[in-house]
Amino acid sequence: IRKAVETSKAAKEQTLIKQHKQVWWQEQERLNGLRCKLESEIKSCLNEESIGNECFCELRNFEKELSEQWCTYLKAVIDPIHQLRAVDFVKKQSKAVFERLDQEQQEVEKDLSDWSVKLLDDSSEEKANLLSEQPTELETLECPYPDLKSSILNEFWSFTEKYQKKLEDFDLQLEDTR
């Protein structure tokens, strides 16, 4: 008798649940239809050009502005937080950065070694020859005052001699370090 009562209760509950589902489904369909109808009425009202349309235009502009701000917020705040939560993303980024830095370091070291070899190979005579030549800019220098031009040339040669002396000192220091 108990089993029959329990089975009867379970069957009643199942029947009741099916009836409720049907009612809720019908109500949801009805409400969904009403929502679509109201949304279309609101849109048509907003799209109409009437005297009181300024308020609707302001609301539409405000909605657009809020939407843009929301997208900006998502890109600026939420997306980076999600990326930080994904630790693998941070690991991949740091690995890529370190690989790029290692590659740049190797390139810089290679350039430095090339330059050091080039500097060591240049002889003092070649440097002196380069410094002994007068630049064409000085030869073609137009100056209304000949005294000023000769003064500039003298200063140039004085500067060149000082530079040559320092260069020779550096060459001597370089030879000492070899």
TrEMBL record:
InterPro entries (UniProt xref): CCDC148/CCDC112
Record keyword Coiled coil present: yes
Organism domain of life: Eukaryota
Record's keyword terms, sorted: Coiled coil
Protein name: Uncharacterized protein
